[in-house]
Automatic annotation (TrEMBL):
Claim: Transmembrane helix is one of the keywords in the record: no
A single GO cellular-component term on record: nucleus
Organism: Salix koriyanagi
Similarity annotation: Belongs to the HD-ZIP homeobox family. Class I subfamily.
Protein name: Homeobox-leucine zipper protein
Pfam families xrefs: Homeodomain
Length: 128
DNA sequence: TTGTGTTTTACGACCTC
DNA sequence: GAGGTCGTAAAACACAA
């Protein structure tokens, strides 16, 4: 899929070793993850995966805007407001945090890349 | 159409507190 | 143990050819 973030982190850590050591634990010899069983959620009685409505997403976004983490109470309240399973709300927040983190990473990468390019230009000017 | 790339929803494995 | 991240499967969607 999308390897942009990995590329960015590779470049950043090349330029600034140690920057991501806390965010990116070394997974060098990562263990193989087990494949998920297909359509295990028989709880939904064969229901297909459904996109959330615009209204639901809007309310979730509003809540995410005010607080990125979700206490049990707030999760249950939100879920009943949205007519969703609390588990769906929790998953939505997990995925939203992941997207937010990627976005931040991308911004950070752009900033670092720009400043790196500026420095390279300055260096060339000084050398010439 | 349909083949293909991207986004979204959902879950398993593992980690942390 | 509950709830977090990470990696990824699979459905949904967008869209060029």
């Amino acid at each position: 899929m999308n390897h942009k973030v990995e590329d960015q982190m590779a470049l950043i850590s090349q330029l600034y070793p140690g920057v991501f050591t806390q965010m990116v634990p070394q997974q060098g010899e990562s263990k193989p993850r087990r494949r998920r069983k297909k359509n295990k959620d028989a709880g939904l009685s064969g229901a297909k995966k459904r996109k959330l409505s615009e209204e639901q997403v809007n309310l979730l976004e509003m809540n995410f805007g005010s607080e990125h983490k979700l206490e049990s109470d707030r999760k249950d309240k939100l879920a009943s407001e949205l007519g969703l399973d609390p588990r769906q709300v929790a998953v939505w927040f997990q995925n939203r945090r992941a997207r937010w983190k990627n976005k931040k990473l991308e911004e950070e990468y752009t900033k670092l890349k720009t400043s790196h390019e500026t420095i390279v230009v300055e260096k060339c000017q000084l050398e010439s």
